[in-house]
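Onboarding guide, step 5: your first structure request.
Type a short instruction followed by the sequence, for example:

Predict the 3D structure of this protein.
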Amino acid sequence: MDKKKLILRIVLISLAAILAVGVIWGLVLLIEYHTLDDTGLPRIEVTTAGGAEILSKEDYVDCTVTVSGAEAEFCFENAEAGIRGRGNDTWTHYPKKPYRIKFEEKTSMLGEKKNKSWVLLALYNDFSLTKDRLAFGMADALEGDAFVPSYHYVELYLNGEYNGIYLLTDQVDENKGRTEVKEDFEETDVAVPFLVELDSRAPSEGVEGVDWFWVGGHSYAVKYPEADERYTDEQFKYIENYVKKVDELCRRENVTVAELAEYIDVQSFIDFYLIQEAMGQPEINWKSVYMSKTKDGKMIMGPVWDFDWAATGPYVGSEAGKYEDMTDGFRSQDNWFDALYKGSAEFRAALSARWSEVHPKLLAAIGQVEAERDLITRAARRDRLHWHWYRLGGSYESALDDTLEWCRARITWMDSVL
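The system replies with structure tokens like these:
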């Protein structure tokens, strides 16, 4: 046999071997995918009218919702609702989409307080599937005054088709069981209740002076009361000026806790800050930072929200963008928390005292997530096979280990600093 024929034979044999391995791998994935059908998690089935696709973040598609696989008292069939997309990058850049469901009537989901609107977080960008759940659990453990979103792992089926594991949680809004700031107010009132979000995307999504405002180089979106719920421009200015006053106080050198306490719930600020830093949350500087106030109350910071970029970084399993160093300083930069930490000895003392109380609670919250590993492993594997089947390396288990180890190391570092 001449050299060329030998080389050709070797190439063909190699290609055949590669093809065989690919076929075997595909069969293994296919068999495993179908044997993981019963994962033990609650199942949410959404059936859209006429099988319509969900293509918009603004327009709801009529649908019915069925919950099964949970305790009997939490299950129901064919509740009338609407469904639409939600999120920003998570909606536009990833194949697995997050959704918002709005029922015709206030409805309890898996035992939570009745409300019309609920959120299904896709968790696509977090291979550990745990960052939002962990942050919400930390907030729960601190037992503060701020609203804490609920957190339930579920599996979603859209028009009969499996769509993966999701985190069912609350919509961040003004209603009872949420931030609870919705109140009646009159046309003559200047002081109004509000829910505001620090949101860098606000300028591209609304009108300045109507939907959002600038304070200290940052844009703040008014989530409640929205423009059609307000009577006067003065009511918008009241919200803006209140945020300006808090911004001025936080940035004032040597501001005292007593001065802060005239305008804000100091403990909610401290708890929010500690959870954001324990999770290594970089977005604290530009978005998903909520604050609310009743007419006669003080500003409360929270709820905590949106942690897919936290802890190990946005793309777990990829070296690009990973946060290797858990001890590289606080994530807060040029915001209220950074200013308070650097400029107020009294605030630092209050922060340190609160840290001593909550440090073991944060570690316990990590332990609770660890204890849920077996509960969601089968569902997590099925989700990975559906959405990340092409990833030969990595797994839910290894990503979970990475995230929890990162957070423990981060908390250890914070303990040495605080």
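Each response can be followed by summary notes, for example: The longest helix spans residues 3-35.
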